[in-house]
Amino acid sequence: MALATAAPETPAEATASRRTSRTANVALNEHYNEPVRLHIWKSKRRTWTRGQLDRERREFFETRVTGHAEVWAAISTAIELMRAGDLVTAQSILDAAGITVPTGDLCQGCYDQQGALYRLPQCIVSDPTNMVQTDTSTATESQDAIEQDEDEEALSDGKLATDDASGDELISEDMERRRDEKGKTSERDLIRVRVRLSDRGGPDLVLMIGKGQSVGFLARKVRQEAEISSVQSVRIAYLGCMLKEQQSLPDQGWEPGHIVNAFVVPRRGFNE
Fold first, then answer.
1. Is the pTM above the cut of 0.90?
2. C-beta of residue 96 within 8 angstroms of C-beta of residue 139
3. What is the pLDDT of residues 222-265, one digit of tens each?
4. What span, in angstroms and rounded, lies between the C-alpha atoms of 91 and 37?
5. According to the UniProt entry, which residue ranges have a biased composition of type Acidic residues (predicted)?
6. Same domain, 177 and 112
7. Is residue 19 part of a domain?
8. Rounded to 10 degrees, what is the CA torsion of 235, 238, 242, 244?
C-alpha cells in the first residue's frame, strides 16, 4: 500500500504558517506588533495628483471623531516620516505612543494601548505608484502641494525641529539664548500651553510662552522643563499635524486650552 504524502506548502501558506506560529507565542496581555513598512499600491479607480492627495490627508486627520486625538497625531506624524523614507523614526513615534501594527502595514489597521482599532485608507498612508506627476489642479492646490513638499523635505533632512540634529549641527547655547531673549514678551501677551509628552504617562507639562514665540522655542522649553536626554529630540504636533517650528502656535491654528503633543524620539544619528 502506497503511503500518502502531504502536498508541499505554497509560499503564501508558508508565510501564513510562520505568522500564525509567531502570533501563538504572544502573551494574552500583549499586543502583537510587526515593524512598520511602507504600503505600495496602484490606483485603479481614479487619478491622483499631489494637490489632491495633500488635501485628502489634511481633511482626513482634521475630521477624526473616534479614537484618541494623541493617537491620530502620532499616526499622522509617523506616516509623514514613512513617506519621507525615515522608517526608523516613524517606528519610534508609534512605539512611544503605544501603537501596534500587527501586520506592519498601517492600511491593514493599527491599535492603541486600549485595543481600539484605527483604520487608514491607502491614499492617506502612501502615494500611489501611478500618481500624476504634473498637478493640473487649481493654483490653491498647487500652493498647498508646495507647502507640503517643504514639510516633507524638512522631515527627510531630520531638521523639523531646531533640536533635531547632532554634533556641530546643534544650535549653540549663545545663539539660542539670544533668540529666546528676542522673543520675550510682556505678561499680557503670554499664553498657557498644555503639553502631553509621549515618553511618560503624565502629568501634562504646562508652560507659559509668548503668543509670537515659535514652536521651535516651545520645543526647546519642553526639553529644558522635562529634562529630556540630549540623545533625544522633541517634535510638536497639534490635531494630527506636525507643526512648523518657525511659526507660532496661533499662526498654525492652535486654540487656547487645547493640548499639543510632544513626541520624544531618538535624535537622527544616535539610533543608527
1. no
2. no
3. 988 888 887 888 889 988 788 888 889 999 999 988 999 999 88
4. 9
5. 144-155
6. no
7. no
8. -90
pLDDT, position 202: 73
Low-confidence ranges of the chain (pLDDT < 70): 1-31, 134-187, 268-272
Cβ pair 78, 96 in contact under 8 A: no
Cβ–Cβ under 8 Å, residues 166 and 270: yes
**CATH number of the domain encompassing residue 233:** 3.10.20.90
* Number of domain units in the chain: 2
Cβ atoms 262, 196 nearer than 8 A? yes
**Domain boundary residue, one of 157, 192, 214:** 157
Q: Find out whether the peptide bond into 203 is cis, omega within 30 degrees of 0.
A: yes
Residues 130 and 177 in one domain: no
Residue 85, CA distances (Å) to 36, 69, 90, 133, 153 in order = 12, 24, 9, 19, 10
Report DSSP letters for 87-134, one per residue: HHHHHHHHHHTT-B-TTS-GGG-EE-TT--EE---HHHHS--TT-BSS
